């Protein structure tokens, strides 16, 4: 690959809680590994406080220099969640309450969203939604900037909708294993062992809780179809070893590798 | 405290291994909590690759804007350890092999240092050494920049020599408990519980291995002497609970609060 073909990204971590030390960031590491599978180089990362001028300055520095920017944090319902405002201002567009998000909220809550929830429905005009398979409202993309949640579990779920939008020459294969009746905490150790054994792959775990039960969808992604297949076999064996009751290999979705 | 009295710092994390996702950074969080005890606000953090121009540009942006900069990583013996070179260039001074470090190396190894070790003895002219109580050569300070190791255990040890050099209005009390005959891994859980219970304090663990045995010096720091005393009592009780054989409350060193 020629240097001019290099596809780059930066991560902008937004949040006083990281700079105060109250929270240990784990999003940067997850994003770095996820992007690596797609052949995207993480070129730089910055952590800024919940201060408008700081967020906008960092965002502008990063989005003009690198191919993509992924932001984490600051999209919740409280007054210090100002990421959407900052991104809109950086792009010189207004915010609007996105009709799709409002509709999702009405369906979810069976009522008109509260002002705090409406705050989370705001998207810069021209932005497209980033699917949130975990919990709460979606993220969004505008230009080369992806705006994701700060909570790692939710951020990781949203990231699954970022990869397919990236301009890369790489075909990424993705396979899902559905585990039912077993909690994520029990899966954590074997999942980590699998991640260590396969540094070229990315692993995601997206737990579900519904009327039929609980469990998690485990996603294995990589560029080498054989390594993905091997890892899926190992994953299924490991889940069996920890006594998972129901382990299902899901078919690849249409359009996936 | 007036806003003009605010003392600020930035962290510059240097290393491809962080941006590739191979390594999860935990230094930022430790530094943030450590600085917080001294009343220093961590204002910004950046992660840059092992690329000279990137390191210098980030260092200059940070050191001209904030009161202090702490860098981590890139001070080892290999060709990609270029932090000292970059800091020297940013300050416009040459590097020299520091006589004190060379002497430490001769004492430690009983011979003239190898070229790889001599590389780690290089300090920008005008720099002062930052004590390394853990393992390997010291870090250094030049102007408002502190250059520390990337390995967390070593970085944390070096940080203990940074706090006393910071210009802050805060008096910080520090107490040390020496635990012998018990490994750090056994102490990890109670130490973490103590850290969670006392977010205003900083805790350090500096293990030792020598001919007399092994163990760790546990350092509790904080601004409130009563909370430090309480935490030290709790720490001693917790070490006793996990069966530590020898737990000694060390006297405060001269000059400490």
Overall average residue pLDDT of chain A: 90
Q: What spatial order of strands do you see in the largest sheet of chain A? A: 2-1-3-8-7-6
> Which percent range describes the beta-strand content of chain A?
25-35%
**Count of runs of 4 or more consecutive helical residues of chain A:** 9
| Annotated CATH topology of the largest domain in chain A | Molybdenum Cofactor Biosythetic Enzyme, Chain A
Shape of chain A: globular
Fold topology:
The structure is a homodimer of 257-residue chains.
Chain A: E1 7-14, H1 16-19, H2 27-37, E2 40-48, H3 52-65, E3 68-72, H4 83-91, E4 95-97, H5 99-109, H6 115-119, E5 122-124, E6 128-130, E7 139-142, E8 145-148, H7 152-159, E9 173-180, H8 184-197, E10 202-210, E11 213-222, H9 225-241, E12 246-249
Parallel strand pairs in A: 1-2, 1-3, 3-8
Antiparallel strand pairs in A: 4-5, 6-7, 7-8, 9-11, 9-12, 10-11
